[in-house]
């Protein structure tokens, strides 16, 4: 009978979070009083100067997130040939001797 009434859980929790938090380590304040308490102003200035020198470096390549790219609105490009060709690179391909060069010459002199 004593064996059935005995506590069957482990006396020590296997994980630190399983045992609960100690009340003696409970902080008195949840928000810091001063800004300088965690990060002194000199450190902020050093960080700002480091960022400025990194941006001014000729090898610096700015990164842009995909969300910024999707949200960016780009202006329209004026057409080279109204309703047909816009500025950029096009591949004009086809079988040999079907008139590709002739068509390009005609478009160039329009």
Can you describe this structure?
This protein is mainly α. It has helices at residues 2-5, 41-56, 66-71, 100-108; strands at residues 79-81, 85-86. Helix content is 32%, strand content 5%. The protein is elongated, with a radius of gyration of 35 Å. Residues 1-43 are annotated as: Disordered. Residues 21-31 have a biased composition (Polar residues).
Q: Estimate the strand proportion.
A: under 5%
Structural class comes to mainly alpha
Main sheet: strands, sense, barrel: 2 strands, antiparallel
How does the overall form come out from the CA principal axes? elongated
Give the spatial strand order of the biggest sheet. Answer: 1-2
Order of helices and strands, N to C? HHHEEH
The end-to-end span amounts to 105 Å
Radius of gyration over all CA atoms, rounded: 35 Å
Low-confidence residue ranges: none
Number of strands: 2
Mean pLDDT: 76
In DSSP terms, counting alpha (H) and pi (I) runs of 4 or more, how many helices?
4
| Helicity, as a percent range | 25-40%
Short overview:
By secondary structure, the chain is mainly alpha-helical. It has four helices and two strands, in the order αααββα.
Relevant terms:
single chain; 110 residues; mainly alpha; two-stranded antiparallel sheet; P-loop_NTPase
Topology overview:
Layout: H1 2-5, H2 41-56, H3 66-71, E1 79-81, E2 85-86, H4 100-108
Antiparallel strand pairs: 1-2
